[in-house]
Amino acid sequence: MNDRDYVRETVERNCSGSGKNLDLLIEDLRKLDEASEGNAATLLLAGLGLAGEAGEVTDLIKKLVFHGKPFTEEIRDKLIKELGDVMWYSGALCMALNTGLGEVKTLNHNKLMQRFPKGFTPEAAEARVDVLQPNTRLEDGNLNGA
């Protein structure tokens, strides 16, 4: 199979209709906009922006670790500025979800306390007790489905 056929087959097999058809994408965006109380555009902007800015932070750190770039005051300042962009997009995403960073921090803290009740271990990280495993149900607040 040549590269072009491989890509075509992969897209056909693994993408939703809205990933291949503009009309379906617009329809899905309208559904999202209605479900999110008119926040689809902000969700899209903030989600993509957050990924882009996190990528910039990641790239700078990659260059420090793997490319021998020296850690200078200039690099530190650049990382802080990029982190500011990450925070801005995080805030925009919070706004679109009608929440705030305080709620996000609290929920994250609770998730991590459940995942690592005795502190981080590689075994606890693999077990992910805070994530429902396939074929489990959330009942009575029990997040591990047991």
How would you sum up this structure, described in words?
- The structure is a single chain.
- With 146 residues, the protein is an all-alpha fold.
- It has three domains: 1-35, no CATH class; 39-99; 100-146, no CATH class.
- The protein has six helices and no strands.
- It has helices at residues 3-14, 22-35, 40-66, 73-96, 101-115, 122-127.
- Helix 3 packs antiparallel against helix 4.
- The protein is extended, with a radius of gyration of 20 Å.
- The relative contact order is 0.07.
- The model is unreliable at 137-146 (pLDDT under 50).
Concise description?
The protein is mostly helical. It contains six helices and no strands.
Biggest sheet architecture: none
The number of distinct β-strands equals 0
Radius of gyration: 20 Å
Give the number of helices: 6
Beta content comes to under 5%
Low-confidence stretches: 137-146
Query: In whole angstroms, how far apart are the ends?
Result: 45 Å
User: What is the H/E order?
Assistant: HHHHHH
Helix-residue proportion = 55-70%
- What coarse outline follows from CA principal-axis ratios? extended
